[in-house]
């Protein structure tokens, strides 16, 4: 309670009166707040659900003892983390069309003879009529299709085994990397000359089998571990497969090894190719002769085999219901077809998961004399998408065109030696999906006109992208470290340059800033960016990189000039005005300390350093030499003598400017000239870039660039600057400091 006797209390106006909220503001808050809360809840729920599904796509099938149907026996994983297994690889080459035609004719003759023998004592019947097949679709209605299927004349496929060996032994589901080479001889048969050549005409099949000492469990109960698998030659048409063979093949995978790409014809435009000669003779060939091309086969020599690491128990009822649904809809069966179409099968983990194969096993029980029945699901195998680079495509030397003007065509070799690089990794569903997504985003289109040097650079990119997500091309390589160093160097140098603009734009005082050092640094920026613009003119002058460089070349020096000259921008009615603020006591003290070393020695040092750079050729002396399997030309045009001297002068200006700022920081015991974090970014980026050249850290390098003495001198200046940034405080502005 206030009284008039106390003057302080008499002047107290009391609590501020609360304002009434307007109707519009009340309506806005009433609508906006619930809407924002709903959007946050919806987005958060969607993200949470998506992340959970990504980490465990089959979560709805997991066994839970609290479920109502938990009494149904659970389904166990066939392979656990404690068990070991081997991988058998078999390379198959499809037979020629003549071989398949011969086998088809033999099967037709055998079927006809069997049919004649079985019907010799009965009356003859008419030809079988086509059997109707109903196709039901909610948008198309019901269609009736007449299809004649003769079991004796179905497509016959002939495959020849070129290689069959166990390539991995003693693997576990916890292994993140293993590698092997598959060496075999590929015969150049007439199959590669056929017009209809498919990617899976040459394929490799991977089969997972238990190791000799697998550690027990359901997988060891599946078969006798003494059964020899190494060196199996593949099955022939007359071989009857056992239950063991069918069980192992049920979750094996087959991977195509061919890629078919159109390439320019080696013949003249007026000549013909095998593909053109096999096409319709009445079709026009004007377009083909103008731009002739031939589809040529390439052999993929690198792949990554993966097994999805799934160890959870599945609920028996839910698993069988999901498997029944998959059987009814897989490979086109959902459209009403009576037979699956394997060309449209979706074998992705998100679609089939571990539902393809279910085993009923008799497992011995140590506590009892009798065995018990246990259900187990098979592991899921697949290969990583786009796991190869351009250098991993081996052109198959086969002639697929007839050049009419060539007197003696070069004969095709009878066979070639092939070496396949196979990598293995056990991955979680989330990591596998993430790797496939990034592989699809970074896929490189095939370019037949790429030079060897371009392919080498593209191979390095493919190696880094694949290695970043779990596929190492070589055992002694560390691609994730290289990706980390590349990103660290790029991010650090980008942040270093980006921090210059807000620092100089926000300067309210020049205290702690070396005036001479800032001018020298400003001049180095101007020369550096001007050289880039000069070299970009006129071809690349409108590119995004050039325009960004031009913006920095103009804006950053102007901002620095405004800061060091204390220029203020104002307005006098309709036109801008410039005024200069007088120096404060702190600013005059900084100028006196900076001027203790006059301009003449600094400029002389700039000139001397530029001459040492120029005549000593410090930019050409390799501290770390480059190496490459190929001699590739430089991607940049050679510099003229004037351009070279301007670059060396730019380096000298930047170095002397940094030295001037370091000397002022030492005298004032404060850090100025930039943000302290900027100096740390500069040193961090330099160290990261330097480590990229160290094989003991990044592992195997197919090729690398070089480091010059000039670059190391610049790095040497970043060390004391970073030390000052860590040990010295920033410049403090005294608010009571007057002019």
Automatic annotation (TrEMBL):
This protein's UniProt keywords: Membrane, Transmembrane, Transmembrane helix
Region (Disordered): 269-294
Bilayer-spanning residue ranges: 31-51, 483-505, 511-534, 546-565, 673-691, 703-723
Residue spans of biased composition, Low complexity class: 272-291
Highest taxon of source: Eukaryota
Protein name, per record: Uncharacterized protein
